[in-house]
Each structure stands twice: as structure tokens, then as C-alpha cells.
Amino acid sequence: MVKKSWQKGHGDHPLDRYLKEGRIPHIWCPGCGIGIAFTAFIKALEKAGTDPDKTVVVSGIGCSGRAAGYLNMDTYHTTHGRAIPFATGVKLSKPELKTVVFSGDGDLFAIGGNHMIHAARRNVCLLYTS
Q1: Burial of 83 by CB count in 10 Å (0-12 exposed, 13-18 middle, 19+ buried)?
Q2: Rounded Cα gap, residues 1 and 15, in angstroms
Q3: Cα separation, 88 vs 95, whole angstroms
Q4: E strands present in 3-126
Q5: How many domains does the chain have?
Q6: What is the CATH number of the domain that holds 82?
Q7: Model confidence, pTM
Q8: Helices H, strands E: what count in the chain?
């Protein structure tokens, strides 16, 4: 089969290049909104023309934190509430990378809330999705 120009990944769908083929289907429960949020995130990456080789996704613990394991790019699964400090370190050491934090409410706003405040205070360019 000859690949079309948009088929830079391993499958037949234009978004497949962002996914690890062996990890699909996902583990999220039927009716859970994380799969919908994850799909919207991947579509946004594609629409923005994001290069997976220049993107890093950092996630924490919990169901939404599992998203990093499905992405075909550099990803890090960190401890609870510490995704933002880890992502800050990535961004400061490699400012040319698009750095995304994909975590849930506990990681970002409860346990990690103080880290979000300090990342904002430091003006670190991170993309947050929950």
C-alpha cells in the first residue's frame, strides 16, 4: 500500500501518527469523558500542525495521567501533583520544545495547585489540559 502524504504514521487515519498503535484501544471506562478530551487534544495537535518530534507531554497520576502512554512522542508519567514542576524543568532545559501538561484536577489544581501558581509567576510557557 502506498502511503498518502498525510499518512506519516503507522495507520490509515491522519491522527494515527500521534498514537502508539500497540496501546490502542484505551483503558478508560465506557462513558468516561477522558477519551473525548484525549481525542480533542490529538485533533488540536493536528490542527495546529504540531510536530510530534518537537513536543513533550508530561502527565501525573490518575486516569487522565494515563494519556501520556498512548502518545507517539516523548512523554513522562510523573508522581502525583508534580507534573507541572517536571514540565517546568523540561521547558527550561529545552525551550524549543512544545511542553504540554496533561493531567486531572487533583494533579493540576489540588495537590499541584501551588506549582501552577509558581509556574505562572515565573512565566513558564506551558500548555495545560485537564
Answers
A1: buried
A2: 18
A3: 10
A4: 55-59, 74-77, 98-102
A5: 1
A6: 3.40.50.970
A7: 0.81
A8: 4, 4
Q: pLDDT tens digits, residue range 50-87?
A: 899 999 999 988 888 888 888 999 999 988 889 999 99
- Among 35, 58, 29, which residue's Cα sits nearest to residue 127? 58
Q: Is residue 116 a part of any domain in this protein?
A: yes
Q: Are 77 and 69 in contact (CB under 8 A)?
A: yes
Does the residue 96 lie in any domain? yes
pLDDT per residue as tens digits for the range 2-33: 444 444 545 567 788 888 877 777 788 888 88
Q: Which three cell numbers stand for residue 98?
A: 512544545
Structural domain including 108 reads 16-129
Q: If DSSP states are collapsed to H, E and C, what string results for 63-84?
A: CHHHHHHHECCEEEECCCCCHH
Q: Answer yes or no: is 10 within a domain.
A: no
CB 60 within 8 A of CB 104: yes
